[in-house]
Amino acid sequence: MPDLIDGSENVTVHGIFNWILLLIIFSIITVIGNYLGYHHPMEGSIVGMAILSIITLAGVWLERYLPFNISSILYISVIGIVLAFPGMPTSKFVLHYVSQIELLSIVTVFLAYVGIGMGKSWDEFKALGWRAIIITILVIAATYYGAAIVAHIVLVLTGVPAA
To answer: Keyword set for this entry (predicted)?
Structure first.
């Protein structure tokens, strides 16, 4: 079975269709998880996931179509910030519906997708050896502790008492 997302630099009708299909599947699973786990109404979750999916498609399209060597994550972030920026006509609409999507609903589906992707390339991962496992653990631990330190500093600077 060919990869659902092709890594080519050219945006083709087939590539866009694959992205749309993946985002629809991702959105359906997220909306169901959001409803069952957090009791958010499905209608609001569907609109919120549609907004996030459209922003994602726009970011991926910009990455592939513009001549700059910029990651789609940056495009997606900028588009989302601009649409939700206070004073923008889209701000209230975007914030209302996107706030109905719980982050953990999205992360759960994303991590399942990553797990499936890792399972497909497990032999390649094993070929890296034990050093790759140690580096992976160190990177995850350093990221976690770095984020915790930054969060603690921000909480202290904003006057939230440390526990």
So the answer is: Membrane, Transmembrane, Transmembrane helix
